[in-house]
Amino acid sequence: MKLLRKMTVTALTAVIAVSAAFAGGAAAAGSLKGKITVNGSTALLPLTLQAAKEFQKMNPKVKIAASGKGSVTGPQAVKKGIADIGACDWDASMDVPGFKAFDGQVANKVAVIPFATIVNKNVGVDNLTTEQLKGIYSGKISNWKEVGGADADIVVITRAFGSGTRVNYQAKALDGGDIVKKEKNYKETGSSGDMKTAVGTTPNAIGYIDLVYVSGDVKAVKFNGVAATTENVINGSYKIWAYGYYMTKGQPTGATKAFIEYVQSKKFQQGSLKKLKFIPISAMN
Amino acid sequence: MGTSVTPVQEPATLNGKGNGPAVNADPKRHGRHLLSNNLFTIYSTFSILALCLVLGLVILFIGKTALLLFGQISPADFFFSFNWTPEEDAFGAAAFIVNTLSLTALTLLIAVPVSVGMAVLCAEIAPRWMKTFIRPVLDLLVGIPSIVYGYLGLTVLLPFLRRISGESLGDGLLAAALVLAIMVLPTICRISDDAIVSVPRKYRDAAYALGSTRLQVIMRVVLPASSRGILSAVILGMTRAVGETMAVVMVIGNTPQLAKSLFAPTSVLTSNIVMQISNVEFDSTWNYALHMMAFLLLLISFVMILVIRILGRTRGKNA
Lengths: 285, 319
Hints:
The structure holds 2 protein chains of 2 kinds. Chain A has helices spanning about 1-25, 45-60, 75-80, 130-140, 165-170, 190-200, 230-235, 255-265, 265-270, 270-275; strands at about 35-40, 60-65, 85-90, 105-120, 125-130, 155-160, 185-190, 205-210, 220, 220-225, 240-250. Chain A is of the alpha/beta class. In chain A, the strands form 2 sheets. In chain A, strands 1, 2, 3, 4, 6, 7, 8, 9 and 11 form a 9-stranded mixed sheet that branches. The longest helix of chain A is centred in the first third of the chain and has 25 residues, at about 1-25. Chain A is elongated and about 65 Å long. By secondary structure, chain B is mostly helical. Chain B folds into 2 domains: about 25-70; about 75-319, MetI-like fold. Chain B starts with 8 loop residues before the first helix and ends with a helix. The interface between A and B is large, with 39 and 39 residues. Chain A: It is found in: Cell membrane. Chain A: Keywords: Lipoprotein, Palmitate, Phosphate transport, Signal, Transport. Chain A: The complex is composed of two ATP-binding proteins (PstB), two transmembrane proteins (PstC and PstA) and a solute-binding protein (PstS). Chain A: It is a lipid-anchor.
């Protein structure tokens, strides 16, 4: 079923891309016209959808189709010519662990995504250092009492290899350290929602997630003594965050360029983007 | 269809005998008939061909991508190595194959006795009001999306398993098998039910006439007589269990390793595909390996359906 759906989506996006190419050729100077296809990260999808809605209101002749699957499908779709914009949680024009750089693609920063280390409500620990996290994820630390908690085995919950959240968490929170599979007390989840449920329902569990998802049965722990809040990301003291990118084949042109500029504009960044709990890119400069 | 056929014509065609004279009496009506019949034949043929084409394309597409794998690694590595570490170019799927088979076996071990028991209850023992209650409830259970079962497994079953086993995670083959057993139970139960109901009444009457108790009739007469039907019910349930993904992925732990205990987090073919397919590059060995795993699942299902077909044919001969 999954494959079938993937095939249909690919076929549909291909059709849209072809018609976009025709429409793009006919675009005249002046009023903006064309079709833009966005594919890739699910984390950035709400942002893309909101921006598309607003942009299409201002430019009724531009049609934007957006879908989300996984970060790496973004730059891949751009490479194959299926999509005009590939949303990705990392800068895909450079090498990251597990994924080679996509040559000839330009990374356009559109948002800041903060991530948080989360633990089950029953865990007494509320601060973890980089070294402690590295120990936990590499399997060297396997009991909460080694990091100042109760005497209980640590249950490690992580995202599957290749997840944008995992790539960023590994780079920022673990300082490039490994996430090692263990015989037991180790579990992989497929999405942010599953991660939250799994950590929330498993006593002694630790995991990581986009900051916006933190609520209810899970609590975010401090990282090197700094609380995971948007303020601390902006003032530079909280380090686990990453830019979200729109990847394009070469420099963007035409309607695509205008759309990316709209997402980067002060109006959108300070308005809808903030409301969706992302952080404006300008806040980081 | 509806516009060309007038209500008056229906009885004439349905009772059969009016067909010949009607042709002679009204050549215009005959022509209309011929036309609508031909149109319907063309439409049906077209539908069937389209379906075959789509199916063929699916098999071709998956198979083609899957076979590219063996240009990169040897089949022996794929089928017999237990080391699945795609990040380091190790693509051994043996653990998933073994886990898939053991998960299916464990599921059937839990589900078959319960569901066949329920089928016997439904068909032989329960009073009429209970039958009219149980059957629709079972049909309803089939309609619940599998991800809902998975979520319930994650939030209700896992904490329970953790409490009784003392494990700190609880994920593994047992959790997955329990969730799957609940999912395949209605399928096996309803089809077995039908098989038992279709056992001729005279068999039971004869057995009772010889002085059998109800238990003897059920165990010695009814169940053996409907065994082929029950077997195909089990195989249908098995195909569902083998291909099920969303519920399994939430409770199995998704650690690619051979399951050494019922509570060790592990992974099966379906869950591994769904966890990784969205995060791999299109033209990579990893992607081909996942396609090969999908192709394997397709083959397993195909073999099972073939078995049902063969069973169905021999049953037809016996009757």
